[in-house]
Specification:
heterotrimer, A mainly alpha, B mainly alpha, C alpha/beta, B: mainly alpha, ABC transporter involved in vitamin B12 uptake, BtuC, two-stranded antiparallel sheet, 14 helices, C: alpha/beta, Rossmann fold, 3 domains, 6-stranded mixed sheet
């Protein structure tokens, strides 16, 4: 039982320390934060001055700032993905949505002829987001109304989406010059990189939405025990549809933030494999793939781990192509550590006294 | 028990509901036709029938649009080219079928194909004899399959995550082997790659090459395994939706089988890697991105359900042919190649909707109860479950 | 009535002194079971009696802590279900554990297929399947998909599979739960056939009529202990029911001394809170009529599987009704849903806490808030102050321990979990509260608290439906008692000094079928 009553016995400082450690380590974010800290420290050791942040040209500058900026895109993707996963679903199309959104925005700006005005840039942005939202609504429709398995429902757009993006850019890499648009990805606000501002803002908004309304609790409820939620009167359809739409929207934003600095829409490569990165970030942050309790803060930590990892590879003078290896390692370690079997071995899971050859659950 | 039919016992012999095919004796052609008609309408075969219909439809459209007076669209050259271009995908789809039948998924096959290509290229450059190289290539795939199988079965990690990790691992290893494209110039290899038998002459020339034969052998072995062995039926049973419980209680080896399907998928990825290397004569770490999706799409178009338990190897083969034909048609039509992806997505959507309609019909018949929309989200996990 | 062929035949299975312990509870304590060839033997007992544990011991799923099992005079320790199967003990489970996506022939013959070299000889295997089916008097297309047949047929296929290995013992675990009358008759024909062939059949069921129709002998368990073995023909129903429920016919007098609610309830001219007319669901509950009034506790009594839970689910809208009408507070309800019911002031506390009640990873506060919140929708959160006050109120009123709203509900004891769930429903201020086994599996102290609470609620005007397997509870609290048997409402008693447990049991045991 939780909430043990403290007894008035004198405990040695080491025992108290151990107890604090045990209680801390049970927190869902403990190990991810530890991993992040270890990574940062390792980088700091190898590359002195790694943790330095200076002000240059009126804005923040430094390796850590870069890491923050790099983590904006995965974080935006992960926030949406996290909510979808909480309901027990998944969205594989976010990478393709990134490409489509970016393509739509840049194509509009390119064809508007007035690319350098703020109005055009904003309209381009809005169009890109609207299209992303529409895709999210479509995915939600397939899953909640037609009852299609989320994996395959979003797989459709994962495949077709690339083609659609290519159609929009007509096979070219659309490049435009639009300083206002570029500022979305490359600009600074109060000296902080725009992507960080945007990601931070979105995180705050979504966190408020999720915890300030009952949305978060109902999402978790649906993910943990759908039948009990149904019997308690929870109508899961609209809620689930909403998070798929939100996920699509955020993916669109992520694509634009990602591509704005380069001002180029490479429909083939933008967002490639990013959905898998997003899932990894969510899982690293402590949210389980089966759904249920989720942690947006965990997504932040996960996104930071991801971008720190990518930066660490550079700092350690390893070829960037080795990054997938580390991703695999971290994923396997995190999953095995969380797997039931290991916990069972550690005696943390009670098992009925079954004979070894008996199947897991026999109805009788 | 002997194979002779014992006379019906004294107690009233009751006609079972549904599916009784009369007293089973010869009733003439009409009887056979009726039986086969019923079999095709059987839920299991309906999706594949749909795929075959699509295939025929595409051929008909192609025939109508592209045939000239001198040359028919549908000819041996068409099929030969299809198979030459897609033999690697055929092998991948066959392996993926096994995994999907159990309700799992394997996201690593594209990365494994790339890795195998690189390993083959590197070993040949270093001077390892060809037979060993080919064997090593296949074994790379097998090892990856085994890794995933162990993660799924013994660590209870979801197939999605386990194969995702394997994919990252394979991609990472690719980059370790070589960051640049490695050309394969070994004579033995290129001889094998270019070996082919010629048929016909002039503009209607067509070939059979080694890749096609390998793919055909793989298909035949897969059909044998799935339909003529206890193992194959256990694979189907694992996809029944209860996590392999029924199969376990029936005394069939559920755990072992589940690991084996991933080994098979990995081995097929290894073979496909070699076939793809034949095709490109090189190893490149950026190959195969998205290839697993093509394989999955082919399997789904071929009539298999992602939840497992239904599907056929020949259906997946048809799915690959549909995939390949769509590409051919798009090229013929002069459209840009990325239209392929859009069409594949559309065909996939169509098939998924059809499958959904079929299962909803089934559910209604079993008088399920939900107060939400008629086609409420299925109880099965959104991801292919372990 | 069954034909008994109980000449002195050697038992094929002898279980003696079986004891199985789990942490904290003795599931079986020195239980004996004897199965003889050519006999249908019933295993009877209420919830927690130990039936399923005993079967799992016989089929090798559980290890026994003490006692002996002999099959055909050979002492056995089974290592798993496959082991038991090899020894000739086959089981057909309630959820037919076959693969519905495989063919009939495959399901029957897999593991014993006919081979031709490395290939499976399907034509020969199918013919063998036909043979096995014919032995049971069945004529099915072996190539047809198992899932395309009704559950009844699938069950018979499962039996056919069991017979492929020439099982000496066939265990049928609640086989008739999903069958209609015709299908039950078919199953019984098959069972008689097998009995004539010398198979020992262990038949687990709670349908009294069926027990008396098909079985030769009975073993009754209660609370993990053996009550006795009897010849079906020599045990009257009332005695059987008494033995299962735990009241010797002579002890029933003691019940009458227990404090009971005697009320003079004047129901004339009052508007019912809920009125069900001909409400029913195919295969689940036969159409029934029911009226519920304010301030009234209506108990629902009946044996396990008699349809009590299903009645509650129909009233709440958890299941969709196929027949009949429902009127709540004067307004007709077209298609009841959980949310609609909550908004109309009807709440249901489910029987299965784990599957249908607790949201394990959420806190006590969140679990209490759930239904309340669902009523408001996702966007308007229940204000924190209001929620905290409500939660604190219920924690105190129901003595929920630990009194920490942030504790995860899955860490609470069963009794406290039940109280949290009760708080969830009470927080919606229902006019009608349906309680399905609210005191099951919780300690005595908590039981008394909940019973007191129910009486209090009713006295404040709430209408309560109280379902429980414990007759004394039902009689202690209820103004009226609805009696269910075999998925039918068979009686309604107004509680009073002359209504005792006997009366209820008699109503249950009254033989002669209705329809």
């Amino acid at each position: 039982m939780t909430g043990t009553v403290a007894t008035e016995t004198t405990t040695s400082p080491s025992a108290r320390l151990r107890e604090t450690f045990t209680r801390l380590s049970r927190h869902g974010l403990f190990w991810p934060v530890v991993a992040l800290v270890v990574l940062l420290l390792a980088c700091g050791i190898v590359s002195p001055g790694f943790l330095d942040v200076t002000v240059r040209d009126g804005h923040l500058f430094g390796q850590v700032v870069d890491i923050l900026r790099q983590s904006a895109t995965p974080l935006l993707l992960a926030i949406g993905m996290c909510l979808v996963i909480a309901t027990g679903g998944i969205d594989l199309s976010v990478g393709a949505v990134m490409a489509i959104s970016l393509a739509v925005s840049l194509t509009y700006i390119a064809e508007s002829g007035s690319g350098t005005t703020v109005a055009t840039a904003l309209t381009g942005l809005a169009l890109g987001l609207v299209v992303a939202l529409a895709i999210g609504l479509f995915n939600g429709f397939l899953v909640t109304v037609l009852g299609i398995q989320p994996f395959i429902a979003t797989l459709i757009l994962m495949i077709a989406g690339r083609g659609i993006a290519m159609l929009i850019t007509k096979g070219q890499i659309t490049t435009v010059t639009s300083p206002p648009f570029k500022a979305i990805g490359a600009g600074y606000l109060f000296g902080i990189p725009m992507p960080v501002i945007i990601a931070g803002g979105v995180f705050t908004l979504v966190a408020l939405l999720v915890r300030g309304t009952a949305l978060g609790m109902l999402l978790e409820s649906i993910g943990i025990n759908r039948e009990a939620s149904r019997l308690a009167g929870v109508k899961s359809r609209n809620i689930t549809w909403f998070v798929y739409a939100l996920c699509g929207l955020l993916a669109g934003l992520a694509g634009i933030v990602y591509g704005a600095p380069t001002m180029a829409a490479d429909a083939n490569n933008v967002g490639l494999m990013k959905e898998l990165d997003a899932i990894m970030v969510v899982v690293l942050g402590g949210t389980k793939l089966e759904g249920g309790k989720f942690s947006l803060a965990g997504c932040v930590v996960g996104a930071l781990i991801l971008s720190t990892l990518e930066r660490a590879v550079v700092i350690f003078h390893l070829p960037t192509q080795v990054t997938p290896l580390f991703k695999a390692l971290i994923l396997i370690v995190v999953c095995i550590a969380g797997s039931d079997r290991l916990r069972a071995r550690a005696g943390l899971v009670r098992r009925a006294r079954r004979t070894p050859a008996a199947p897991v659950e026999v109805a009788a | 028990m002997t194979s002779t039919q014992t006379p019906a016992p004294a107690t009233t012999s009751r006609r079972a509901s549904g599916g009784a095919a009369g007293t089973g004796r010869s009733g003439g052609v009409a009887d056979v036709a009726r039986r086969w008609g019923r079999r095709i309408a059987d839920r299991r075969f309906l999706p594949v029938a749909g795929t075959l219909l699509t295939l025929v439809l595409i051929l008909v459209i192609g025939q109508a649009r592209y045939s000239t007076d001198t040359r028919s669209f549908v000819n041996m050259r068409l099929f030969s080219n299809l198979l030459v271009d897609n033999s690697y995908l055929l092998v991948l789809a066959v392996g993926m079928t096994f995994v999907i039948l159990t309700g799992g998924i394997d996201l690593s096959v594209g990365a494994v194909v790339a890795l195998v290509g690189l390993v083959v290229a590197k070993l040949l450059i270093v001077g390892v004899p060809l037979p060993l190289v080919l064997l090593a290539g296949v074994l790379v795939g097998t090892v990856f399959g085994l890794l995933i199988g162990v993660l799924v079965q013994y660590f209870s990690i979801q197939p999605f995550i386990a194969s995702l990790a394997a994919m990252f691992l394979a991609r990472g290893l690719c980059n370790v082997v070589s960051v640049e494209s490695l050309a394969i110039e070994d004579k033995g290899f290129t001889d094998l790659a270019s070996w082919r038998i010629k048929f016909g002459h002039g503009p209607s020339i067509w070939y059979i090459n080694l890749s096609m034969i390998v793919a055909l052998v793989v298909i035949l072995v897969a059909v044998y395994l799935l339909h003529y062995t206890r193992f194959g039926r256990t694979v189907y049973g694992l996809g029944a939706g209860d996590g392999g419980q029924a199969v376990g209680l029936m005394g069939l080896r559920a755990a072992r089988t589940k690991v084996w399907v991933y080994v098979i998928s990995g081995t097929c990825a290894g073979i496909a890697g070699i076939l793809f290397a034949f095709y490109t004569r090189s190893g490149f770490n950026l190959t195969g991105i998205g290839m697993e999706l093509d394989a999955i799409a082919s399997v789904v178009i071929g009539g298999a359900m992602l939840t497992g338990g239904s599907g056929f190897v020949l259906g997946s083969v048809a799915g690959v042919l549909v995939y390949g034909l769509i590409q051919v048609l798009i090229a013929r039509e002069g459209l840009d190649s990325w239209w392929t992806k859009v069409f594949i997505g559309a065909v996939l959507l169509l098939f998924v909707l059809l499958q959904r309609a079929l299962t909803t019909g089934q559910k209604r018949r079993r008088k399920k109860n939900r107060d939400e929309s008629p086609a409420s989200p299925p109880d099965a996990a959104p991801l292919p479950a372990a | 009535m069954s034909t008994t062929s109980t000449t002195a035949t050697e038992p094929v299975v002898r279980m003696t002194g079986i004891t199985i312990e789990f942490p904290g509870v003795k599931a079986l304590d020195g239980v004996d079971l004897t199965l003889r060839p050519g006999e249908v033997h019933a295993l009877m007992g209420e919830n927690g009696a130990g039936k399923s544990t005993l079967i799992k011991a016989l089929t090798g799923v559980y290890r026994i802590d003490a006692g002996e099992i002999t099959v055909a005079d050979v002492g056995r320790r089974f290592d798993g279900p496959a082991d038991a199967q090899d020894a000739g003990v086959s089981t057909v489970y309630q959820e037919v554990n076959l693969a519905p996506n495989l063919s009939v022939a495959e399901n029957i013959m897999l593991g014993h297929e006919v081979r031709l070299g490395p290939f499976v000889n399907w034509p020969a295997t199918r013919r063998a399947a036909r043979t096995h089916l014919a032995r049971l008097g069945l004529d099915l297309d072996p190539m047809s998909m198992l899932g395309s047949h009704s559950i009844a047929i699938q069950q018979l296929c499962a039996i056919a599979r069991a017979m492929v290995v020439d099982a000496k013992v066939l265990i049928l675990d609640e086989p008739t739960s999903s069958l209609d009358k015709a299908e039950v008759a078919q199953l019984f024909d098959v069972m008689r056939q097998l009995r004539a062939d010398g198979v020992a059949i262990l038949f687990v069921s709670h349908f009294l009529d069926q027990i008396y129709e098909i079985t030769d002998r009975l073993t009754v368990l209660r609370n993990g202990r053996l009550v006795g073995e009897y010849l079906t023909a020599e045990l009257p129903r009332l005695e059987l029911v008494s033995k299962m429920v735990g009241r010797a016919s002579e002890d029933l007098a003691d019940i009458e001394k227990a404090a009971r609610r005697t009320t003079t309830h004047d129901l004339e001219g009052r508007q019912p809170v809920l009125q069900a007319l001909g409400l029913g669901r195919d295969g689940t509950v036969e159409p029934f009529d029911l009226e519920l009034y304010e301030g009234e506790i209506v108990g629902v009594a009946g044996l396990l599987g008699s349809g009590r839970t299903e009645v509650a689910r129909l009233l709440y809208g958890a299941d969709r009704a196929d027949h009949g009408t429902l009127t709540v507070r004067g307004a007709a309800v077209r298609s009841a849903t959980p949310l609609g019911s909550l908004q109309r002031g009807v709440a249901l506390a489910s029987e299965d806490r784990k599957k249908e009640g607790i949201i394990g990873d959420l806190t006590v506060r969140e679990n209490i808030a759930l239904a309340m919140q669902a009523e408001r929708g996702a966007w308007r959160k229940v204000p924190a102050k209001e929620l905290d006050a409500t939660v604190a109120r219920y924690i105190e009123a129901l003595s929920i321990h630990p009194a920490n709203p942030d504790a995860l509900i899955r860490n609470l004891s069963g009794g406290n979990q039940q109280k949290v769930l009760l708080a969830r429903w009470l927080a919606t201020a229902p006019k009608l509260l349906l309680l399905d086994e609210p005191t099951r599996g919780i300690d005595v102290g908590a039981k008394a608290e909940i019973q007191r609470l129910v009486a209090e609620l009713a006295s404040e005007g709430m209408s309560v439906v109280f379902i429980s397997s414990e007759l004394e509870e039902v009689l202690r609290l209820s103004h009226r008692v609805v009696v269910m048997r075999d998925r039918q409402k068979v009686g309604e008693l107004t509680n009073g000094p002359d209504v005792t447990a006997t009366t209820v049991l008699e109503t249950i045991a009254a033989s002669g079928s209705a329809s």
